[in-house]
Amino acid sequence: MRNALFFMLVSLDGYFEGPDGGIDWHRVDEEFNDFAIEQLDTVGTILFGRVTYQGMAGYWPTVPAGDPIADRMNTMPKIVFSRTLDKAEWNNTRLIKDNVGNEVTKLKQLPGKDLIIFGSSNLAASFAEMGLIDEYRIMVSPVVLGGGRSLFKGLHHHLPLKLVSTRTFGNGNVLLSYQPER
Fold first, then answer.
1. Chain-wide mean pLDDT for the chain?
2. What is the pLDDT of residues 128-150, one digit of tens each?
3. Are strands 174-180 and 135-141 parallel, antiparallel or unpaired?
4. How many CB atoms lie within 10 A of CB 2?
5. CB 3.0-4.6 Å disulfide test: which of 43, 56, 84, 97 passes with 116?
6. Measured distance CA(167)–CA(108) in Å, rounded
7. 139-169: buried (b, 16+ CB within 10 Å) or exposed (e) per residue?
């Protein structure tokens, strides 16, 4: 059985986007990129909500071939969950419009590497509501934004988690990995 993981980079005050929607505060360096490659190599399918999917689909195909992250992002199987998209044109992407909980449960039961949600906070909140996320990987960047879009906005119930690991990066980022208490 595969696990569904969620990865998001947030500010110290819990925002994944700044007040202007920007993410220029992300601390990305060689160590972060090595981590990104390691993480991508442990998963088999990337899950997106519509907004994040459109941003990623507009960016990664423009990165020249040979970039190890772009090569993985462009070739890995991807699923976008959206009621409003008519088609998903990014290479190796499937669109799911309905029965999200049932579809994810089926995906988790298939053999293979884990599933991962990148960004897509609304999707993650929806999955959390349904109890579909097996691990939350929250990378905290040492910056206070003072406003923006809050992680897990839209979650309507208490979500008890247990810390399973931490990792500190040289640039000040800290990766916190949690599992739901079940």
1. 95
2. 999 999 999 999 999 999 999 99
3. antiparallel
4. 17
5. 43
6. 26
7. bbbebebeebbebbeeeeeebebeeeeeeeb
Q: What confidence tier does 96 reach under pLDDT thresholds 50, 70, 90?
A: very high
Q: Hunting for tokens 């969620």 — which residue is that?
A: 6
User: Is the confidence at residue 73, as pLDDT, over 80?
Assistant: yes
State the burial class of residue 91 (Cβ atoms within 10 Å of its Cβ: 0-12, 13-18, 19+).
middle
The residues, any chain, with a CB within 8 Å of residue 180's CB and separated by 6 or more, are 131, 133, 134, 159, 160, 161, 162
Structure tokens at 71: 């090569």
- CATH number for domain 4-180, candidates 1.10.10.10, 3.40.50.720, 1.20.1330.10, 3.40.430.10: 3.40.430.10
User: What are the extents of the domains in the chain?
Assistant: 4-180
Instruction: Report the pLDDT value the prediction gives residue 82, as an integer from 0 to 100.
Output: 95
Measured in degrees and rounded to the nearest 5, phi and psi for residue 115 equal -100, 150
Tens-place pLDDT, residues 18-55: 998 888 899 999 999 999 999 999 999 999 999 999 99
Structure tokens at 84: 């409003």
